[in-house]
Amino acid sequence: MPGRVKLNNSEKMPAFGFGTWNLTGSKCVESTGEALRVGYRLLDTARIYGNETEVGEAIRQSPIPREDIFITTKLWPNDFGYETALRAFDESLERLMLEYIDLYLIHWPRDDKEKRQQSWLALVELAKQGLAKSIGVSNYGIEHLEETLNSGFAPAVNQIEFHPYIYEEQRPILEFCKKHSIIVEAYSPLSQGHGLNSITVRDISERTGRTPAQVVLRWAVQHDTIPIPKSAHAERIRENFKVFDFELSTDDMKMLDELSLTH
Ligand code: NDP
């Protein structure tokens, strides 16, 4: 079972999560419910996914106490601005039918620096009020992160695309985040299902007796990131969660790291 990771504001976050992008309607309620049954405690949604209502429904249907579930949702850039961000947050809470969010993220930095900064100040206010237990960002590069750090309130998390095929590109951000105690959440950790068939991944999978998905998810865990794979299939939801009872060797990690140089 995954443990919990301590964030830079002392809150704790599960070390593994369930992504819900592209899950809608009853399929979303069903798959999210399955994830909770299997043991996932971190759920990732966003206003733009159009499924906050369904994710909230799955939480209500589950016997797991609210405080044991860690729910992330995100502010879409169309809602940038201080007041609009606060309103967007309230609407997300209403759709989820929750009293608070565990982690609220700015979904994308977009170009408008002033509005982005106003939005960040709105998130800081939400954190101060305890309506968002933790706040963070997503798809932020180093200069965006620096801008946020200069505001005097550090993001707890930066959620970025992270899988072996994008490793070299994302490495500077990963290192910057580590240096500043910002946890990296790995989105699209299965490279959206592509790339699980490469010879390197298949070789390691055969040698370790783990599936290709488990191999790349374990790789993300060993890079100290929190992966949030999505699946609409119960057996894959279970498969993806089983990555805490084995370890990849340094050589295997290196081979996976190098996939980004050859693809
Ligand atoms: P993933 O890398 O999680 O891949 C999902 C795809 O892989 C689906 O097509 C799924 O198919 C397939 N899959 C799942 N498990 C397996 C398996 N064991 N073997 C083979 N194929 C598998 O992609 P996502 O882009 O969905 O990323 C995960 C989450 O990250 C999102 O759901 C979302 O919550 C978040 N995200 C955040 C973004 C951001 O901007 N902050 C951007 C993109 C994603 P099937 O469902 O049919 O099983």
Topology (SSEs and partners):
Layout: E1 4-6, E2 12-14, E3 17-19, H1 25-38, E4 42-44, H2 52-61, E5 70-75, H3 82-96, E6 101-106, H4 113-129, E7 132-138, H5 142-150, E8 157-161, H6 167-179, E9 183-187, H7 199-208, H8 212-222, E10 226-227, H9 234-241, H10 250-257, H11 259-262
Parallel strand pairs: 3-4, 4-5, 5-6, 6-7, 7-8, 8-9, 9-10
Antiparallel strand pairs: 1-2
Helix pairs in contact: 1-2, 1-9, 2-3, 3-4, 7-8
The structure holds NADPH dihydro-nicotinamide-adenine-dinucleotide phosphate.
NADPH dihydro-nicotinamide-adenine-dinucleotide phosphate (NDP) is lined by residues 19-21, 44, 107, 138-139, 159, 187-193, 196, 213, 228-233, 236, 239-240.
Description:
Helix 1 crosses helix 2, helix 2 crosses helix 3 (82-96) and helix 7 (199-208) packs across helix 8. The chain is built from 11 helices and 10 strands. It is an alpha/beta fold and 263 residues long. Helix 6 (167-179) links the parallel strand 8 (157-161) and strand 9. The strands form 2 sheets. An 8-stranded parallel sheet has the order 3-4-5-6-7-8-9-10, with helices on one face. A two-stranded antiparallel sheet has the order 1-2. The model has no long low-confidence stretch (mean pLDDT 97). The site of NADPH dihydro-nicotinamide-adenine-dinucleotide phosphate has 26 residues, from helix 9.
